[in-house]
Amino acid sequence: MFTSKAEQHNIKAKIAASYDKLYSQFSSDELNEIGNYKISKFIGEGSFGKVYLATHKLTHQKVVLKTGNKKDPNVVREVFYHRQFDFPYITKLYEVIVTESRVWMVLEYCSGRELYEHLLKQQRLSLEESKKLFAQIVSAVYYAHELKCVHRDLKLENILLDGNGHAKLTDFGFTREMATRSQLETICGTTVYMAPELIQRKSYDGFKADIWSLGIILYTMINGYMPFDEDDDNMTKYKIVNEEVDFREGEVSDDTIDIIQGMLRKNPNDRLSLSEVLSHPFLQPWGAAAKEKTNKVLLKQRGGNLHFRSKHEKRLLKRLKHCGFDTGSIKNSVNKRKCDSLSGLWFLLQERDVASDVGVPKRTRSVLSVRKVFESSVNMVMDDILVNSPECVKSNSLKKIMSRKSGDQKIENQELPKLEQPNGVKVEELKDPKREEPESVNSTEVTNKKKGFLQRVSSLFRPKKHSTQGNINQPVDNHTAPGIQPLLGKRRHKTVSNESQEASIRNSLPATESADLNVQFEDKNNKVTHRVKKMKSHSSSEISKTQNGSDLQNLQLNESAEEILKISNNGGARRSSIVSQHSAISNDTYNSEYSTDAQSGFRSNNTQSSNRVNANSENLTATRKNVRRTLSVLSSASSTSEMSSRTDSFYDITTASSPMNMDIRSNYNARSDSQFPRINGNSPWMIKRGRSPIGRRTRINSRSLNRKFRHPTPGRAESVIQEESSLDENERASNLPEVAEYDSTEMAIHSDSETPSKGNTPLYTIGINHPEARPILFSVGRSMSDGSSWSHQHSDFQEPFSTALVRQPSSRNIEEDDYEAVIAADDEDNSLEDEEQEHVRSLVEYV
Ligand SMILES: Nc1ncnc2c1ncn2[C@@H]1O[C@H](COP(=O)(O)OP(=O)(O)OP(=O)(O)O)[C@@H](O)[C@H]1O
């Protein structure tokens, strides 16, 4: 109990200050967490929204958060289709978080970034690399096609590379199912990757259109420039429709020519099928292997056998179950592709285990993984369970591992990016990537072996640094080509910045550089400079407008080249064959298939700016760059016909709040279908403790030995801990030990109570790094008389603990004589017996 009024005032003041801090955090504009993900930096911006690098708090896995407006049909479409895909060469969609206005897609992080950037770096890819990557890309598309989905925006920018250099197809904003139709009408994609039938605005077979785009991709990978890419869009379109791709004589093998020509046949029905592409001699041995792998995945998936079959998965599942997770819910989430926090957790756990499958004995690592997840997810102590789990006992002693690994490590302070609200998220500060640490801990020297058990264990779960893997922190644009590097560096930087930043970068460039920030490749043989454009997906309602106002719809694409050129040249002078200033304008101009005038605001900004460019040639350079970078386009030709895809009934995507951040106690009643981990078949907070140490380290009577902590009855949802025994609910409630108040600091509210001044106050997690953090020593006991309630006492600890939950007491009239327990600081205190130690840990750390 508190010894003086002054102390009580002091404590009250601290609680009030913490409350204020919490309140201001709630009302802050800064955004640094979404669900279970901690945002670490802004990495790019697409047509639909911004993209951030983030860390999954429970597994420390890096992920990408891609945000979009909830009302944007393309965002809905992207989620709808993407979540159906579960394939090694398609970026994984782990989770979808829906907030009031935005959708956050949690995606697999591809540290190698875009294939486009890789190609810029290499100028052109070796045949071997091209084959390998292309086989992976084709297999991803083949997989999607087998699921009757067409991508419709295949391009270098939509193929990412993971840390192992594997291709990952992404960006399913224009995807469409083809199960119910054979022809599509909506014109969408990116001009230079578009099939002739789309350019001609005919109805088209989506599968065949994808195959054409793949042909463009392969050609570009091998040659380092695009087959149809003129500075003038009309010319590009003319060539797509009328001309054959050309190859440098003697440089390209017959197989290469054959496969590319096979994919780029003007008549869609003459094009190779993807199965044929994968079996083509050019692509061997990669193609055949990729095809086989894809067919296996498809077979498994169709049979509903994709998950939980491998030894590794079974082992992980077992561990989770052992720790009380509701594995049925996890399976359900994963199998149904719910993209909720459970399936996210599952996939990330799996990936982390696979990634860290080096060096640590399997059994131990598994146990530790599960332990860490559990610790993080419910913020409570699992030591009791894990230390005594058979796995842990069989393998290395956890204590030994901890004492080996807990070492004196200095953890750098982590700076968080400051963000605007989701719909206008803006990074004010970018963290130094080298200092990036997944843990949100402040600078602390951990020197004492006896310091926080959790912290020591937690240090074991920090992701290993894989020096061989692609590092996101490395600059992407270390272009090898002289002269290109500075240009790329600047352009790249600009790509992820806002318009004003772009303008300032551009202004700082010499005129020749700023003229076109697209990278130029010099073809040494032909002395012709080629370009690989980076195209930004966007749309407008102006598809038919060329830069000079001519209507492409009326343009006869089989007109003579002269005619076309005449139109083009009228449209504006080409500054040179190398650096085009004008061409991208109409090239990048399309409609959303749902586009209406009202909606055009969504994706038509680039078009509008393009038009402004035309109007004012002085602004052309700066504005064009925005337009130029990317384009994926979607015309409104058949908006109604394809609208039906919106009616798909998919939304069992979970909404925003992470279960881990929810008040787990308030879910007590629903625990049978709870998603939360359960311990020994009970709710997560019903941690079974051993026996309680009593009577100055003597034993308590047998009745209390089997008691468990649990949260209170529904009527007292805010209360903290209750014992479970054979007593009925009322008795349990009355047996709730009250926990003394202490400082409350960082987050993790575990109660819905509004203010700490109420009788039942919220619980807070106290962080070890808080300047005022100190542990609480609880003396817990009960009188020896039957039916007596548990009570406790608290006093200061000399040594800090990693975590303690505290609560303002509602009752302070506990009599000294009622106590019979003394709590020890650490499990290494040999003066306590095992069960007593467990009790101590569960009380001090778990409470
Ligand atoms: N899973 C990912 N891993 C790593 N980087 C990613 C990932 N997804 C997107 N990015 C990066 O984020 C940026 C924006 O991506 P996004 O897909 O939103 O736009 P985009 O493909 O550039 O444009 P658009 O949507 O118009 O096609 C790009 O630089 C991209 O490389």
TrEMBL record:
InterPro entries, sorted: Aur-like (IPR030616), Kinase-like_dom_sf (IPR011009), Prot_kinase_dom (IPR000719), Protein_kinase_ATP_BS (IPR017441), Ser/Thr_kinase_AS (IPR008271)
Active site: 153 (proton acceptor)
Keyword Transport annotated: no
MF term (GO), any: ATP binding
Start-end of Basic and acidic residues biased regions: 405-418, 426-438, 838-847
Domain Protein kinase: 37-283
Binding site for ATP: 66, 157-158, 171
Catalytic activity, reaction form: L-threonyl-[protein] + ATP = O-phospho-L-threonyl-[protein] + ADP + H(+); L-seryl-[protein] + ATP = O-phospho-L-seryl-[protein] + ADP + H(+)
Cross-link type Glycyl lysine isopeptide (Lys-Gly) (interchain with G-Cter in SUMO2), residue numbers: 155
Biased composition (Acidic residues): 826-837
Gene3D superfamilies on file: Transferase(Phosphotransferase) domain 1
Pfam families the record matches: Pkinase
Keywords recorded for this protein, A-Z: ATP-binding, Kinase, Nucleotide-binding, Phosphoprotein, Serine/threonine-protein kinase, Transferase
The protein's Enzyme Commission number: 2.7.11.1
Region (Disordered): 404-454, 491-511, 532-554, 591-626, 671-690, 707-733, 826-847
Comp. bias (Polar residues): 497-511, 538-554, 591-624, 671-683
Record-given protein name: non-specific serine/threonine protein kinase
